[in-house]
Amino acid sequence: MAFKMNAVIHKGQDYEKYLRTSQRKRMEYIENEIRTFDSQTLYCFLNALRKRGRTLEKITGIAV
Q: Cα dist. 11→1, 14, 16, 18 in Å?
């Protein structure tokens, strides 16, 4: 899956709306990528997160 996200800085009235939209799109992309992992890749990914003291929830903002 090819994906490119451009950074946009918006300081107008709807700043928080655009920020939340951007964060939601990032979360959806990460979620879709994780769903495509096979079991071994998922295991390695979760171990790498755990070694760094992270959880999937901290990375994506969602509970899995």
A: 31, 8, 9, 9
Using one digit for the tens of pLDDT, what is the confidence trace for 30-39? Answer: 888 888 999 9
Q: How many CA atoms lie within 13 Å of 4's alpha carbon, on the beta-carbon side? A: 1
CA distance 48 to 52: 7
pTM exceeds 0.85 for this model = no
Q: What share of the chain is helix, strand, coil (3-state, %, to 5)?
A: 60, 0, 40
Q: CA triplet 62, 25, 51: central angle to 5 degrees?
A: 45
